[in-house]
């Protein structure tokens, strides 16, 4: 029998943990809400699993408890912030709030953020933008991280460089959150922890040999770029593009020696688009809904329907909000010592068969 938790209970639980290490209630609620959204959508490696690392950063001072981002430039329709190591989920949520306030005037709003502490799951920020009727493009990179090798290279160069996109498209949005590597580092870490190999050959040793053993990555190897051993030049090119958008536009990244010490700090690129800035909303929806419908109706290779990006995640979010959130087994085990340490009661459970 699986155990589920009411979404509100989980958010309150995580928020209370953050408050107990000194974060203001409003900021703690935002942080908890972002991590919860990730699990609601099924992104289990970057949801509540990341609460522990964020608690550690707040206690150690790697994340700042208080303060505001420094505004480096602001032209109304585009702005650039230095987060100065404020908690990533809070900073990015505030940037999205700014974009949503400005978009009725500008139609398209673009933001760049440097030195934001890890922002976790990109997809978790998209529901509020979708529900407001807008299109979102979100990406981030990590100047202090080298985990992904370029095609033909032996040395890790890029970070995982995830890209998230969402657009209204009828009953569910077109929505995806993918890294520019064959797999994300969090999945490699989970496989190592659980003493199992990766499900595919997605790693490269420092000697150039391909592998599915997570130990290879720990011993100086790298993750293959999107496209794998045969077509990784495509993923490497996309990685370069996303690092230009997130680092170069923000004016801070791999060229700066100090950035190499930033560890998990992210550089972020955000763009919010109002379809009505280009024409009637009905025309936009007609095209987006048609695309989703044709995708859904595509003949399948097997008994399962063809998967449309966003369909499963949105259905899971709707179901888990109604019936409770089923967490990956290790998440509550990792959170329990912190709950005991900070004297926070564990969330109520909803047993189900």
From TrEMBL:
Keywords: Oxidoreductase
Keyword match Hydrolase: no
Signal peptide: none
Pfam family for this entry, one: Ldh_2
Gene3D superfamilies per record: 1.10.1530.10, Hypothetical oxidoreductase yiak, domain 2 (3.30.1370.60)
UniProt key word Cell division: no
Family: Belongs to the LDH2/MDH2 oxidoreductase family.
Protein name: Ldh family oxidoreductase
Organism field: Microbulbifer echini
